[in-house]
Design brief:
Largest sheet: 6 strands, antiparallel
Number of helices: 4
Shape: globular
Radius of gyration: 19 Å
Distance between the termini: 25 Å
Number of domains: 1
Strand content: 25-35%
Structural class: alpha+beta
Helix content: 25-40%
Strand order of the largest sheet: 1-2-3-5-7-6
Amino acid sequence: MFLKREKDHQKWKIEYDETIYKIYDRNNDLAGYFFPDYGFVFDQKSNDDQKEEDEEAVIEAMNEEHKEIPRGEVLVPLVKLDLLDIEDEHIELDVAYQRMEADLQRMDAWKTWMRSNSDRFDIIGNGIYTSREDRNMLSIALQVNSQFVLHEKEIGQKLKPILDSLNESGLL
């Protein structure tokens, strides 16, 4: 029993990296990101360079002091499209249809998961984004309306139920 608990505990690793937290799976592969909502706006009269420096210093201090924040976003892969950047100059309609049909099935699985789990995990919204590195990859940002302590261990404990549920559903 103790070994199982240890194995589950090691399933997700959280690592702080310049204002955000990276989420790694048990194989040490990048599984997603956590974006804290630091919840502040600087005076619009100050210049942009000064605002950026002040913001970075405040964020760094908040993380060093393990401050509590009101919410955050978890960004994870949604679907890998298999349409763009193809080897050939074109793709046949039937092939495109089959590929998109598989993508729609995965989107349906996400919709089902969201309907079943949004209230359970205090997910108040979501947004779909394309990856900067791979325009075929769509990611989903889940807006979690829950208090988070800015510390890798605490964030990991708070996100573990969400990540475990997504993993068990085959979505992560």
